[in-house]
């Protein structure tokens, strides 16, 4: 629950520190004194958006902090612990707004995001504003309230999340199905190309080897002639060959006298040259023997090259890049064929997602039907006590043709104010007073079932007076018994029901205006109740009435 709040330079508040207890705390004051300033400041600590206008004129920044005792609320403690923000059994929320409009947020002294502040704040405080009935006219708000009452919010979120999953799968499936005809044509083309490449079965380095072999086979005859010619020059020619000439040179040199070292070297080199010439001639003879014209093989090589060149031309690429193209075609084909398989898998996922969605939505419908009847009965009882004894309150669950993000039904609050009148949507209720009372009855009922420790009612009693106002006060006091209730009011009958009473007043000094808040005791409280009853001029009659009202509350 909220244990204290400190406000500095916020709106017309210069400095304010307040401590709070359990039960019902009443906040009253003259019009314009700033009764709702504390509520507005608390809203900022809970993550509401703001601007520089909230900073007190002439000051650099506004600073607001609220301290909560969370000993009895383990879910809040767990939330803080998961984010390493725990601090004993307390949760301190702080908000600082600069005059430039910049905002900083803190949880237990550590900087945090506004979304974190809002998330933890929603678990600590629930604020019911004086215009709450306006939002309750919207079916979306009515559905959310029914789900909150029946503790179905988490289930409703699961339905919404599952609906999103299903819709995404359905849209993806539809998109793939629309692409399937073009995809099939593409698969057929790629499959034909892949088969063509497979039949060609080109190997790495094959083109270069075939071109070399073609050049060799095409030049065998010329090679044979030139080998014969070379061997003839070396040894076979009758007209003088290298070997016979070397023999002659060696014989002539052997006849030279005297023999010298240089001559011996010359003879040695000539003998070596003769041997090498003879060996070269033998190699050429052997080479000639290996050469054999093979027109069949030449035809095969040329046909193979022709097939390769034709395939490259057909695909508008170079022969050297055919292997890369084949790999690309096969990769794309496998991908598309895999997507065909994934289309079936996607269809199964979509069907499973829809089955999960309908199962969750069906469970939500069943629980909503139970919750709506219970909520409607309790709201109707409260409305009867608020001066509408013949009113009938219903919650309509209109089945839809298909499941939506919010389930299988359309939720709407229905009211029949008088006997014999048909029930009509709450949004069509003509009387503002009736609408205000119905809205208050709904808020009081839902507050009783709330797990949020602190509830704030900001002038929700507008349009209510007399005996009905006393009923409203008793309602709020009973809600306060289970935790903590704050009520900003202008009605004495409501204010008298409070366990503690705060009065807001406006002070003008040195041409500056500020709001002050005081905790009222005994006589001060009697005077404030009397003021609410009869205005600024207090009479003994209004004071006596005020004392009576406070005394009656003590006797309850």
From TrEMBL:
Q: What is the lineage of its organism?
A: Bacteria, Pseudomonadati, Pseudomonadota, Gammaproteobacteria, Oceanospirillales
What domain of life does the UniProt record list for this protein's source? Bacteria
The residues forming a coiled coil are: 329-367
What family is this? Belongs to the RecN family.
Q: Record's PANTHER family?
A: DNA REPAIR PROTEIN RECN
State a single Pfam family of this protein.
SMC_N
Fetch the CDD domains from UniProt: ABC_RecN
The record places domain RecF/RecN/SMC N-terminal at: 1-506
Question: Mind listing the UniProt keywords for this protein, alphabetically?
Answer: ATP-binding, Coiled coil, DNA damage, DNA repair, Nucleotide-binding
Its function? Answer: May be involved in recombinational repair of damaged DNA.
Instruction: List the protein's name.
Output: DNA repair protein RecN
């Amino acid at each position: 629950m909220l244990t204290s709040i400190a406000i500095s330079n916020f709106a017309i508040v210069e400095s304010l520190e307040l401590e709070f207890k359990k039960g019902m705390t009443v906040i009253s004051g003259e019009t314009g004194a700033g009764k709702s300033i504390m509520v507005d400041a608390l809203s900022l600590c809970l993550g509401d958006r703001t601007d520089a206008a909230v900073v007190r004129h002439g000051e650099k920044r506004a600073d607001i902090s609220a301290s909560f005792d969370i000993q009895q609320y383990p879910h809040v403690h767990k939330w803080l612990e998961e984010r390493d923000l725990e601090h004993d059994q307390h949760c301190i929320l702080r908000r600082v707004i600069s005059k430039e409009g910049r905002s900083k947020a803190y949880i237990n002294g550590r900087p945090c995001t506004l979304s974190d502040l809002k998330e933890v704040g929603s678990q600590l405080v629930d604020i019911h504003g004086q215009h709450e009935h306006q939002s309750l006219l919207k079916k979306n708000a009515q559905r959310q309230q029914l789900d909150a009452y029946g503790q179905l919010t988490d289930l409703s979120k699961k339905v919404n999340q599952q609906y999103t999953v299903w819709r995404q799968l359905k849209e993806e499936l539809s998109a793939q199905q629309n692409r399937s005809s073009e995809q099939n044509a593409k698969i057929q083309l790629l499959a034909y190309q892949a088969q063509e490449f497979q039949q060609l079965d080109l190997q790495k380095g094959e083109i270069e080897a075939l071109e070399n072999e073609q050049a060799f086979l095409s030049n065998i005859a010329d090679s044979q002639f030139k080998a014969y010619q070379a061997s003839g020059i070396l040894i076979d020619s009758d007209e003088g060959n290298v070997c016979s000439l070397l023999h002659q040179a060696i014989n002539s040199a052997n006849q030279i006298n005297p023999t010298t070292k240089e001559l011996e070297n010359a003879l040695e080199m000539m003998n070596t040259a003769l041997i090498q010439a003879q060996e070269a001639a033998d190699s050429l003879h052997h080479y000639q023997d290996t050469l054999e014209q093979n027109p069949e093989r030449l035809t095969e090589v040329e046909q193979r090259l022709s097939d390769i060149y034709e395939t490259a031309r057909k695909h508008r690429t170079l022969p050297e890049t055919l292997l890369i193209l084949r790999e690309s075609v096969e990769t794309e084909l496998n991908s598309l064929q895999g997507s065909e398989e994934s289309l079936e898998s996607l269809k199964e996922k979509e069907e499973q997602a829809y089955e999960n969605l309908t199962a969750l939505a069906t469970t939500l419908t069943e629980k909503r039907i139970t919750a709506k009847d219970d909520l409607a009965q309790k709201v109707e009882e409260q409305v009867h006590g608020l001066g509408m004894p013949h009113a009938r309150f219903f919650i309509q669950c209109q089945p839809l043709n298909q499941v939506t993000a919010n389930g299988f039904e359309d939720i709407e609050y229905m009211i029949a104010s008088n006997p014999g009148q048909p029930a009509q949507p709450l949004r069509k209720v003509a009387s503002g007073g009736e609408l205000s009372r119905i809205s208050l009855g709904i808020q009081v009922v839902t507050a009783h079932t709330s797990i949020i420790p602190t509830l704030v009612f900001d002038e929700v009693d507008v349009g209510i007076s007399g005996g009905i106002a006393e009923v409203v006060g008793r309602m709020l006091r009973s809600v306060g018994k289970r935790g903590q209730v704050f009520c900003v009011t202008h009605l004495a009958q409501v204010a008298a029901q409070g366990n503690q009473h705060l009065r807001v007043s406006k002070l003008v000094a040195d041409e500056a205006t500020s709001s002050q808040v005081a905790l009222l005791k005994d006589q001060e409280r009697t005077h404030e109740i009397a003021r609410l009853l009869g205005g600024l001029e207090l009479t003994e009659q209004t004071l006596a009435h005020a004392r009576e009202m406070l005394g009656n509350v003590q006797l309850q």
